[in-house]
Amino acid sequence: MSRPLRIALIASARFPIKEPFAGGLEAHTWALASALHRRGHRISLFAAPGSDPALGVRELAVHTPRLSAAARADLSMADPSAMNEHHAYLRLMLDLARGNGAPAYDLVHNNSLHYLPVAMAPAVPSPVITTLHTPPTPWLESAIQTDPTGSGVFTAVSAHTARSWQPLVRSARVVHNGIDLRRWPAGAGGGELVWYGRIVPEKGPHLAIAAAAEAGFPLTLAGPVADPRYFRDLVAPRLGGGIRYAGHLARSELAALVGSARATVVTPCWDEPYGLVVAESLACGTPVVGFDRGALAEILTPDCGRLVPYPDVPALAAAVDETATLSRRACRERAEGFCSLSRMTDRYEALYEELLS
């Protein structure tokens, strides 16, 4: 960039942007804010309370409305947490819209999943970029349609995600997510299989357990239990006999675990918009075996992973042996060439400069 920029980076309000991360979106936002700050930009990260203060956090002011008993009893009463989130983003977007001809920010980068930053973007005097992190959702689709000119600026975290938003969003620029390679060092491998991520049905850790058992390899699972009932019913009963749960690990502990694994098992039961676990595993030199869903095929090459049709657990189990023989150096090189944080930041900076010029 020719000059440092004042950037408002809007995060998801559901979880703090801090380690250990609740999920890939929080990890991505932390990495992007950190990279832009290191390059000299002035970042204001609008995020949930408890986020990393080193990122220039301005907490989203969650306003809890005072509702009468009659209003709370109404059949249309929304979930209180959704209502609080709505008011937090409404307050933020109203503040950003009051530029008075001299906007406080050169641009706004919306990295949240909420509809209000999209619907209210035309009212903000600075350019607003929205990154699409998910398949289409009804609230986001309806928010995009509030702008009849179709002038919104969008990026997508993969070509798969960009295609999924067509024809509503025709010109989303693909900027693949990147990771800080220094924080995911190459490991020696050769150990157990590993599965990690949010423990929820759509991530399918129960299928990873089944595949590991069929392949005859021990498996370590790690990550936050985001769905306690699912963990209780489908994961916990399968623990033991070579299957263990290591908990929600700090990033350094997780990187050491992934680097020591012979392969990472990835079992999406939905179309992954990107697949940050795949990028992190490759950075650690660990090949990936998983289901061919969403954008995973954009990241993996035959040199560093194997994908099988979903939900073919026997095929997944059969692919483990071959995956474990793949070159760990090739995995790391793929991460360096395709999944690096510097590559992603370069592309965002180029887009920022293009909009401001």
Protein model, in words:
- This protein folds into 2 domains: 6-178 and 340-356, Rossmann fold; 181-338, Glycogen Phosphorylase B (Rossmann fold, 3-Layer(aba) Sandwich), CATH 3.40.50.
- The protein has 14 helices and 13 strands.
- The strands form 2 sheets. It has a 7-stranded parallel β-sheet. Strands 10-9-8-11-12-13 form a 6-stranded parallel β-sheet, with helices on both faces.
- The chain is 38% helix and 15% strand.
- With 357 residues, the protein is α/β, with parallel strands linked by helices.
- The chain has helices spanning 24-38, 69-73, 80-97, 116-119, 138-144, 159-164, 205-215, 228-235, 251-260, 276-283, 296-299, 313-324, 328-338, 341-356, and strands spanning 6-10, 42-47, 57-59, 107-110, 128-132, 153-156, 173-174, 193-196, 219-222, 243-245, 263-266, 288-291, 305-308.
- The longest helix is centred in the first third of the chain and has 18 residues, at 80-97.
- It starts with 5 loop residues before the first strand and ends with a helix.
- The chain is globular.
Helix content: 25-40%
Q: Write the element-wise H/E pattern from the N-terminal end onward.
A: EHEEHHEHEHEHEEHEHEHEHEHEHHH
Q: Provide the CATH top-level class of the largest domain.
A: Alpha Beta
Q: Tell me what the CATH architecture of the largest domain is.
A: 3-Layer(aba) Sandwich
Give the terminus-to-terminus CA distance: 11 Å
Protein structure class: alpha/beta
Poorly predicted sequence stretches spanning 5 or more consecutive residues: none
Query: What spatial order of strands do you see in the largest sheet?
Result: 3-2-1-4-5-6-7
In the CATH hierarchy, the third-tier topology of the largest domain is known as: Rossmann fold
What is the assigned CATH homologous superfamily of the largest domain? Glycogen Phosphorylase B
Using DSSP, what is the number of strands? 13
Describe the oligomeric state of these chains in a short phrase.
single chain
Number of helical segments? Answer: 14
**On the 0-100 scale, what is the average pLDDT?**
94
Count of domain modules: 2
Please state the CA-atom Rg, rounded to the nearest Å: 21 Å
**Biggest β-sheet: count, sense, barrel?**
7 strands, parallel
Strand residue percentage? 5-15%
